[in-house]
Amino acid sequence: MTHGNHDVLIIGGGVAGLVLALEIADRRRVTLLRPASDDSGASRWAQGGIAAVLSPQDDVEAHVADTLVAGDGLCDERAVRFTVEQGPAAIEWLLSLGVPFTPDTSPGAGYPYHLTREGGHGARRIIHAADATGRVVMETLKQHVADHPSITLHTELTAIGLIGDADGACRGARCLDEQGRLHELLAADTVLATGGASGLYRHTTSPQPASGEGMMMAAELGAELMNLEFQQFHPTCLFDPEGPPFLISEAVRGEGGQLLNIHGHRFMPALDPRAELAPRDIVARAIDAEMQLTGSDHVLLDIRHLGEAAIRHHFPTIHAHCAGRGLDITRVPIPVVPAAHYSCGGVATGLDGATRVPGLYAVGEVACTGLHGANRMASNSLLECLVFARSCARALARPAVPATADLRPLAAGSQPLPPGLVGEQREAMRQWMSARVAIVRHDAGLAEAAEALADQQRRLAPLVAASPPDAELASLWHALRLARLTVASAQARRESRGLHYNPDCPVHGDPAPQPSRIHLADLATP
Fold first, then answer.
1. Cα 323 to chain center, whole Å?
2. What residue numbers bound the domain in which 495 lies?
3. What number is the average pLDDT over the span 286-314?
4. Are residues 155 and 273 in the same domain?
5. Who's near 451: CB < 8 A, 6+ residues apart?
6. Last residue within a domain, chosen from 338, 373, 405
7. What is the pLDDT of residue 401?
8. What pLDDT, in 10s, does the model give residues 344-364?
9. Catalytic: 280?
10. Does the pLDDT at position 404 exceed 70?
11. Which of 341, 285, 345 is CA-nearest to residue 76?
12. What is the DSSP letter of 276?
């Protein structure tokens, strides 16, 4: 079934997608695809806050410098400066919408709202809503989206691929509804806001992480992917094998939390002068090494010394959640383990979200803007969502060009899939990625993963070709090919930098490193 013509089609309803919808809807009609699963995605679970220069004791140059250091030499300074300079206005925009950030009522406060500090930041510049910033921001944005007459919201449609025309431009998306029926939404402009690729791994910090579906949909039309090897593992996810993932915010360490091994010994001060406030790549590797040294499956994050009143005040969500899982964090340390959290790579875009494919834009974690380089600094992610969604909206504020005919057809079969196949194949992919392409990679392990994933794709390809359109199968097919491209990117980077650590090439290489760039065409047929 073909539905057209749509004006601006936004795929994904996290913070980036919602902000873009609101910012463009006064000038163009918006169709927003927001499956129910988006409420369990990364945006909602962003506890810590949003980094921006808001305090009189802070300045743009300091935030730029901290970001460049955290990115380990691979940031695009132009993108960093653009983001940091636009940050205060983006926060003011959220405040104008009524986002209830935590106030600072202390005597002599230089800014009306409480600012915390997180790893890599040299100043307190994280504005937050207690320890549930993502949820609070999302709820506010969702209410404004629901109230806007120019935004049409679809919760029943899941995008499985983009529509291209004979000239190589993007003309919308193919979607499946809840009954599995195919819908083709033709659009003048299409924006991906589909999230990152943490779902390539077994352990993540959100219950339903994206697996790079948007990245591969863009690559299928010829978009360039960049820096896929830099997958961030958050140092502190609650360790509870029997329960769902739950992030323990960076702000816990920002307020004085200390990392201990299972014997109760603090290990970060001996490894880095910033101790627990070192950038995430350093802290995650330190935890991984400590776990191997002690033969444990977790470490401990201790905040008992802050006192019960401070813990309940600063971290009510974390306190309540842990209590619900039988853990009183005012009396015992929190067991934590690193987990896949954020993709620093993605679809290469400009400062306006434009990709190399005409008519296709990308914002949020699906995009690679150059801001994060080889390692994202804490709380720069929601900042990026805000700044680049607003910038993309400005680029889209022009007369619409209706989608054209002569579209590439969709090839599909009619053979039903064997029961349980998709789940089994996804788990196999995740096991290889977690075992060989995680916090520490080795040449031999990367080679094993490359061969295993290529073999998996070879066996799955005929089933994909023979089956009718299926949302779960499409997600797996996108994820599997992105996993192969991620391994290829990791193999190509012959150095250790930021989140990519390979003991077989442990030092920085080129003093002027370049981002890695890869296309779907670079993926050899298995």
1. 27
2. 421-508
3. 95
4. no
5. none
6. 338
7. 66
8. 999 999 999 999 999 999 999
9. yes
10. no
11. 345
12. G
Q: Which residues pair with 32 in a beta bridge?
A: 10, 153
Q: Please tell me the pTM assigned to this model.
A: 0.93
User: Quick one: tokens of 107?
Assistant: 């005597």
Q: Which residues are within 8 A (CB) of 348 and not within 5 positions of it... i.e. 6 or more apart? A: 223, 224, 225, 226, 355, 356, 367, 368, 517
Closest CA to 42 of 384, 425, 347: 384
Q: Please tell me whether residues 328 and 442 are part of one structural domain.
A: no
Mean pLDDT, residues 317-332:
95
| pLDDT tens digits along 175-215 | 999 999 999 999 999 999 999 999 999 989 887 889 999 99
Domain count, the chain: 3
Same-domain check for residues 30 and 61: yes
Q: Which of 518, 191, 236 is nearest to 355 (CA)?
A: 191
**Mean pLDDT for all residues in the chain:** 93
CATH of the domain at 478: 1.20.58.100
Express each pLDDT in 249-269 by its tens digit. 888 998 999 999 999 999 999
Angle at the Cα of 175 from the Cα atoms of 172 and 181, rounded to 5 degrees: 140
pLDDT on residue 166: 84
Query: Do both 138 and 68 map to the same domain?
Result: yes
By C-alpha distance, which of 213, 203, 507, 229 is closest to 372?
229
Residues 270 and 289 in one domain: yes
**What tokens were used for 85?**
């300079």
Please tell me whether residues 209 and 248 are part of one structural domain.
Answer: no
Cβ partners under 8 Å of residue 189, min gap 6? 7, 8, 9, 359, 360, 361, 396, 400
Identified catalytic residue from 280, 436, 493, 497: 280
Q: Cis omega (within 30 of 0) on the bond before 5?
A: yes
Amino acid identity, position 64: V
438 lies in the same domain as 364? no
